[in-house]
Write a structure and sequence with these properties.
278 residues; alpha/beta; D-Maltodextrin-Binding Protein, domain 2; 2 domains; five-stranded mixed sheet; 20% strand; binds glutamine
Length: 278
C-alpha cells in the first residue's frame, strides 16, 4: 500500500485526469537545431525548449529505460514537458551537474533549470524564479538500526555527514547546523553518497525529503526528520534574469497544474514509481 504524502493522496482521490493528459502529449524530441540553445530558444513560439537538470534526483528527475522524454522521467520532467507542449515547443533535456545549473541558465546555455531547485536569495541574484510548485525540507538518511541520530544537533556529535555539492543541504549542514568541516563529505550525486551510509563510511546524508525517502527505500536505510531544525523549502523553475516571456509561460502552466491538482497527482505517481512508501 503506497500512500506517500498523506495530504496529497487525499486531495487526489478523485483526480485522475492528468495521467491521460500527459500520456496524450505525444511530442517528439526532434533534434531541431543542435547548435545549442544560445540566447533564448524559448523567446520564439515553437522551436526547442531546453531544460537543464541533474537527473539523479528521484522522484523529480531520473534516468530510466522508457522515460517520458528520452531516457528522462520524473515530476519535473512531466511539468517541463507540459510547459513545452502547451507552447508548441519541443522539450530537450540537458543532464548536468547540479552545481552548474545556475551558470547555465544565466549564460543562456539552457532556457530553464527544472531540478527540484529551492528558491534561495543567493540564487536569486543570478536567475529569476517562477512561482513555486513544491514544498520540501531536508531529512537525514541513516542506517536502519541507527539509534544515535535523532535530531540535526546529533550530527555535531562527531558524526560523519554526507551532502551533495551545491545543494541547500550542504549550506544547512555547513552553516546552519555547523557540522565540523572535517566531518563533511561532499559528492556530486545523492545516489552515490547514500551508498556510503549503507557501507558504514558515513553516519548520515542530509538531502531533500522526497529524494531521501526514495534513496532510503531503495537501499534499506531509514529517514530521520527534524522539522525544527530543517525549514521548509520551495522548489521553483529558474530562468535567465529578465526573461519574462518564458517566465509567464511557465507560471501559466504551473498555475493550471496547481489548480487542477495535477502536480500533487504527479507527486503521488512518481513517489510510487520510485518506491516511496509512507
Ligand atoms: N532542493 C535542493 C537544492 O535546491 C536540491 C536540488 C537537487 O538536487 N536537484 O539545492
Amino acid at each position: 500500500m503506497k500512500t506517500n504524502f498523506k495530504k496529497i493522496t487525499a486531495v487526489l482521490a478523485a483526480a485522475v485526469l492528468s495521467t491521460a493528459v500527459l500520456a496524450s502529449c505525444g511530442g517528439s524530441d526532434a533534434p531541431a537545431t543542435d547548435s545549442n540553445a544560445s540566447d533564448t530558444a524559448a523567446s520564439t513560439n515553437g522551436g526547442e525548449l531546453v531544460m537543464g537538470t541533474n537527473a539523479a534526483f528521484q522522484p523529480f528527475e531520473y534516468v530510466t529505460e522508457n522515460g517520458l522524454v528520452d531516457i528522462y522521467d520524473g515530476i519535473d520532467v512531466a511539468i517541463a514537458k507540459k510547459i513545452a507542449d502547451e507552447n508548441g515547443m519541443t522539450l530537450k533535456i540537458e543532464d548536468m551537474e547540479f552545481d552548474g545549473l545556475i551558470a547555465a541558465v544565466s549564460t543562456g546555455k539552457i532556457d530553464m533549470a527544472v531540478a527540484g531547485m529551492t528558491v534561495t536569495e543567493e540564487r536569486q541574484q543570478n536567475v529569476d524564479f517562477s512561482d513555486t510548485y513544491f514544498t520540501a525540507s531536508q531529512v537525514m538518511v541513516v542506517q536502519a538500526d541507527n539509534e544515535d541520530i535523532k535530531t540535526a544537533e546529533d550530527l555535531k556529535n562527531n558524526k560523519l555527514v554526507g551532502v551533495v555539492l551545491g545543494y541547500t543541504g550542504d549550506n544547512i549542514v555547513t552553516d546552519t547546523i555547523g557540522v565540523d568541516e572535517a566531518n563533511i563529505t561532499r559528492a556530486n550525486r545523492g545516489i552515490d553518497i547514500v551508498q556510503d551510509v549503507k557501507n558504514g563510511k558515513l553516519d548520515a546524508v542530509v538531502i531533500d525529503s522526497a529524494t531521501g525517502k526514495a534513496l532510503a527505500e531503495a537501499n534499506g536505510l531509514k529517514v530521520v526528520e527534524d522539522p525544527e531544525a530543517f525549514d521548509s523549502e520551495e522548489y521553483a523553475i529558474a530562468v535567465q534574469k529578465g526573461n519574462t516571456e518564458l517566465l509567464d509561460k511557465i507560471n501559466k502552466v504551473l498555475a493550471e497544474m496547481k489548480a487542477s491538482g495535477e502536480i500533487e497527482e504527479l507527486a503521488v505517481k512518481y513517489n510510487s514509481e520510485v518506491g516511496i512508501e509512507e
